[in-house]
Amino acid sequence: MASYTDPPEEGRGRRDLTVALVFLFFAAVALYLPDPLQSQVAEGLRRSVLRPFVATQVALAQARLRAENALTLQAQLDSLASVVAAQASLVEENRRLREHLDLDDRSPGTFIHANLSRPRTTGSESMFLLDVGSNDGIRSGDPVLMRNGGIGLVGVIREVTPDAAIGIDWSHPDFSASAMTADGEVFGFVEPRRGDFRGGDRLLLSAIPYYEPLEAGTLITTTGQGGVFPRGIPIGEVLELHEDFGEYTSEYWLKPVVETGSATHVLVVRADPSVEQLMQLLEGGEEDAPAEGGGGP
Amino acid sequence: MTRKSVLGVFVPLLAILHFLLHVGLEIEGAAPDFLTLAVLLGARVSGMGLAGALGFLFGILEDAFSVLAFGANTLALTVVGILGARTRDLFVGDSLRFFFVYFFGGKLVRDVMYWIVAGETVREPFVAGVLVDGGLGALYVAALGTLMVFLLGGTRPIR
What ipTM was reported for this prediction? Predict the structure, then answer.
């Protein structure tokens, strides 16, 4: 039977081998490029050759948003209106108390709506793309929350371009957050742990004092310490005890509030300027290096 | 099917299809790894140099969406391209059975290479990432690749 491939030409072998080795060398170099250079190369490719595919993804995300059931949205709006109306007196009460105590207004930060999409390519697990960027005021290190259903922590912004941003979700190995029980009584630290299979990733709540046992279903939120995540953002619910370190600390498995694959429309929280100024003062004027979140520039 | 048509039409088409399905339409497991298939197909009709270049190009495009393991896909696909082209000297395969094994093995080598290079923090456990997911992915690529070669008359000689 005739061969599928053409016979190799004489004398071409050495040239081929040389070219192959050159590309192998370049591939190895790409692996060890400094992080900023890797980011520049990746961004350049996303903004040029891969732009049509990213644009398709963004267009589809926007189409999905427009296709949402208007009745459902109206119901959500009505619920929000009733909550806001019910809390109006509390806001006023809070303002008066702060005035009496001589406290400044507490800035809640600014929320920016964004569409979240995932590339679904090898190596892009735990990362997502947002259709907002530095032109919209987004910065590296800003937390990302999910607004569909309840509010929950999705992740943190990692890289920002003028019109897009890349973030890592809670399943990324670099993610971490200072955490507490919703009543503010017990404090700990949340980190992701790989599952046996993709999709089986979980959150581990560590550094919980051994004398403060947590019940299953206890809501765990962010503490606001470190200046990355605002205080009180739900992270997950306690599932079960993972490990008990004798008379020191305990670790618990958490069920995340936000499943990483379900987030499509999110809110990016622009950092509270007062917290930022405080961080700069504490760190001797340095702008970055947050103590949590793993998304620092 | 000519060498020119494979390199000029089918390989770029497969790459476009890969990014359209995975990035544009956000399809994960249901869409096969057309990029590896493109490199393996291209490698079968070209020398090691061109196959390495193809692997490098497609790999770095895939790595544009990789935050922690940038370069891992590039190295994996470059190696697959070079090894794929090397098989031309070792196996004068032209049967569909050969192509099935070739595509299956090529995809598995790509996954093993990626697993090794990506690093401990990024990769999944070996059994889940390579043996289970990788094995199923390799079967998918092999079946589609073989079907494609059959439909394109791959057992006829290249001109």
Answer: 0.89
